[in-house]
Structures are given as C-alpha cells and as structure tokens.
Specification:
By secondary structure, the protein is an alpha+beta fold. It folds into 2 domains: 3-181, no CATH class; 205-316, no CATH class. The protein has helices at 3-15, 20-27, 35-71, 84-106, 109-121, 128-142, 149-181, 254-262, 285-292, 298-306, 311-316, and strands at 76-80, 185-189, 193-198, 206-209, 213-219, 222-223, 227-228, 231-236, 241-243, 248-249, 270-273. Strand 2 and strand 3 form a beta hairpin. Helix 1 packs across helix 2 (20-27). It starts with a helix and ends in a 5-residue tail after the last helix.
C-alpha cells in the first residue's frame, strides 16, 4: 500500500467519525482472500434471483388474468403488479447483505476484522451519500463501548449482521402486509362492464358498468417513452377511468374488441382528444398504421371511426392517405 492510498484510508476513517487512535490498526489491514469475489457473487446472484422472481410473478399474474377473462367471456384484459413485488425485491437484497456480513463474521476473528475493515474504508461507487450515512450511523452505535480497534471491528461486524437480519425480516413483514392490502390486480372488460379483481382468493371483485361512462378520451400519439400508443380511455361517473387502448384482447384483434365495447357505451357520450403536458400530437399516421395496417385498408377506416377522427383531423395526418 503506497502513501497515497494510506492517506485516503485515514481520511475515510476520519470522515466516518472513527477516533484517530483506531486509524492505524484499521487502515493497515488488507482484505481477506476472496472477500470481494464472494460478496460480488452473492449480490449478483441475489439480483438475478430477484429479477427472475419478479418476471415469474409478473407472468403468473398475466396468465391468471388471461385465464379468468377467457372463462368470463371477456373482450379485453389487463393486470398490474402490486406493491408486494417491490417489498420482495428489497427483502432479497437485504437478505443478500445479511448473508455477506454473516459469512464474513463466520470466517474467524482476524479474517472477519480484515473484511470489516475493508468494507469500512472502501469508497462506494454509487449512492455514496446514503451508504456513508448508514456507515456513520453504525459507527456511532458501536464506538461508545469499544475498548480498542479490534474490539470496535468485532462489534461493528456483529452489528452489521444484526441490522441486516432485522432489515430483511422487517422487509419480509412489510411485503406480507402489502400483499394483504395492496396486492396484484387483474381486470377484464366484457361487452357491458369492467371487473376489477385482487389476486386474493377471499377478495370480492368490483364492477363498473359501461352505462355509467361519461366521457371517452381517444388518440394515437407517438410518445417518447412508450412509442406508438393507442388511447381509448373511458371515464366513469365515480371518478375512475380505464384506458382500454393498452389492454390485451382475449381472442381476435384489439380493434374488434374495442368496437364491441364502444357499441355498448351510452348514446351520445362525449368524446375528447388525448393531450399531455409535453404537447404530444394526439393523432399520428405512423401510430394509426401500426394499429390498423395499410392506409387504404378497411381496418384504418374502422379505427378512425372508433377514435372519432374528424375530416379536418384526417386531412392533417400526412402519410395516412
């Protein structure tokens, strides 16, 4: 270790609030063999496991939604993951941190001290402000009873195991609570109504009849984040809305399903054109082509009718004709 690295470590220890008398004994320690590799393997494996679990859960919710919609004879369906998915991700990450700290502590006193010292003096590459705040909090908790640098490192290693174990268990408890109160939802739309189901066997679905619809917002913009987006948002008298333009058809084509639903909306229902804060064009020819096909097709005429496109609007769509 050169003098520049030694000075960096000493400055790091001072920044974290560690007494100067402990600096030399901590700064001179080298990480145990395989320490960084073991931690990296655990963290990366945990992230991969969390991503696979999230993708699998998302797919499961979508399959349940599609199966239920098909059994109900629905036209369209959609699903949303609940907040329990976020809680699950945090639980996996906290558990990975706990496993890293536990394995470090189990490798023997001197090895554990070397590993803890390395983690302490290592500069985080990302989220430095948050990481440093956590380190300073843990240091402040363990310093008062520490007799010397070795005792401080032992206390810090044990504290890390306890704190991360509590964080993982707490996150798991929050995940269970979120699953109970804010679970994944799935929806389907029949010819006459929209049903909202929570992914809980004992929950009761809610229903909104299309007869209570008061306005329909339509458009086909090209958005910076989502690309071509079909908008067919129905607003109900209870203040809720449902954008069926992004829902998936149970069978056949989305346009066919939307036409059937539109035929059951109240006669003379008010139509309004899509708009957003950044001023995206509410109708674009490329978007219409994507959802309807060639400009001279019968499907394009049907889509324009569904979206209530006026003759003036149609004339302004370059490339449509």
């Amino acid at each position: 270790m050169d003098d520049k690295e030694r000075q960096r470590r000493l400055a790091r220890l001072a920044y974290l609030g560690i007494p100067q008398g402990f600096h030399a004994a901590i700064a001179e320690r080298a990480p145990p063999r395989g320490h960084s590799l073991m931690h990296a393997a655990i963290i990366l494996s945990s992230i991969g496991l969390a991503v696979l679990a999230l993708v699998g859960w998302s797919r499961y919710v979508a399959v349940v939604a599609e199966s239920a919609a098909e059994a109900a004879g629905a036209q369209l369906f959609d699903s949303d993951l609940g907040l329990e998915s976020l809680g699950g991700l945090l639980t996996v990450l906290f558990a990975a941190g706990w496993l890293c700290s536990w394995l470090t502590q189990r490798r023997g006193s001197e090895t554990a001290r070397n590993g803890t010292a390395y983690d302490l003096i290592h500069e985080p590459a990302k989220n430095k402000a948050i990481t440093d705040r956590v380190w300073r909090w843990m240091v402040a908790r363990q310093l008062p009873k520490a007799q010397d640098a070795n005792d401080f490192l032992d206390r810090l290693a044990g504290g890390m195991v306890r704190y991360l174990r509590r964080a993982a268990l707490g996150s798991l408890a929050v995940t269970i609570i979120l699953f109970w109160f804010v679970p994944a939802h799935y929806y389907w739309a029949t010819d006459n109504a929209i049903e909202d189901h929570r992914l809980l066997a004992w929950s009761q679905p809610s229903s909104r009849s299309f007869l209570s619809a008061i306005t329909v917002t339509t458009g086909c913009p090209t958005l910076a984040r989502d690309g071509s987006t079909l908008v067919y948002s129905i607003h109900f008298s209870d203040g809720t809305d449902a954008d069926l333009g992004s829902w998936q058809p149970v069978r056949g084509e989305r346009l066919d399903a939307l036409e059937k639903i539109a035929s059951h909306l109240p006669l003379g229902i008010a139509h309004q054109r899509f708009s957003n804060a950044i001023g995206s064009a509410p109708l674009e020819a490329d978007c219409l082509h994507q959802f309807a096909g060639p400009p001279d097709s019968e499907r394009t005429t049907r889509l324009l009718k569904l979206l209530n496109v006026t003759a003036v609007e149609k004339a302004s769509l370059r490339g449509l004709l």
